[in-house]
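#struct-help
A.M.: can someone run this one for me? Single chain, 281 residues.
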Amino acid sequence: MKIEFYISVLFNENAFSAIEDAISVEVALSISVNEVPFTVTMQTPGNEKDLARGILFTENIIRDQNFSPVIDISSINENGCITAVNVKVPNELILSDFSGTRNVISSSSCGVCGKTSLSDLECVSVINSAILKPNLISEMFQKVSENQNDFKQSGGTHAAGAFTIDGELLVVQEDIGRHNAVDKVIGYLINNQLLDKVKCLTVSGRISYEIVNKAKSAGIPFLASVSAPSSLAIDNAQDAGITLMAFCRNTKFTIYSNPQQVEIDNDQLITGKVKVKSDVK
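D.P.: on it. Structure tokens below:
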């Protein structure tokens, strides 16, 4: 199962419509070595044993290419996705880099640090009473684009922007890593005592679990991206009270969670949960 189908809300040319969207599945996989938790990685379901072996090799835990460790499946979720594996390795083959726990979480693209178990990934929900005007989204991304000085020169950086509920730009930060760009924005807001003013965070790349978690940690209720969200990002945003908007390009965007926080005229589009799995394939 690598794709799930969600009912979402499309905003296009000042009109809303309900659509069915195919979303890439993101699942947290816990990897243990000899029953000792090592890391949690966000991944697309499938080939989990290859993933575990590859991580242990690239992280200098098991460098012997001729050794094939026994990798047992420890846990499977309700959708049949593997969520935990244990790698059995003779102690003499484990290199000194392994101290029992890993200092960073491995993700589908890097991000959250210091996690070795799934229970470490929880965070408080965002409290919000503000309503966002949909026409402000394209204006926000235009303002970010105008301030992407590094990208204009190199074409190699991501950007994140912070805005008030009225679309006032507070800061744009760039970095080669999209997670770093988000962290730089949040750090700037904290250092300049502006965190209480920000309501919307825009990012230039894909939305995964980690990006939603950063917005959640900062108490930001609106998250918008030019690219796609993952299934775990949508679920996380829905539970956190965050309105997640993706494929924000020109005058179009799609709402995947909590659409009631966006000014929508059509009442039919804001009843119930927008995140509904209509099918799993």
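A.M.: thanks! The helical segments are 48-58, 136-146, 149-154, 178-191, 209-217, 231-240.
D.P.: also worth noting: The CA atoms of residues 185 and 191 lie 10 Å apart.
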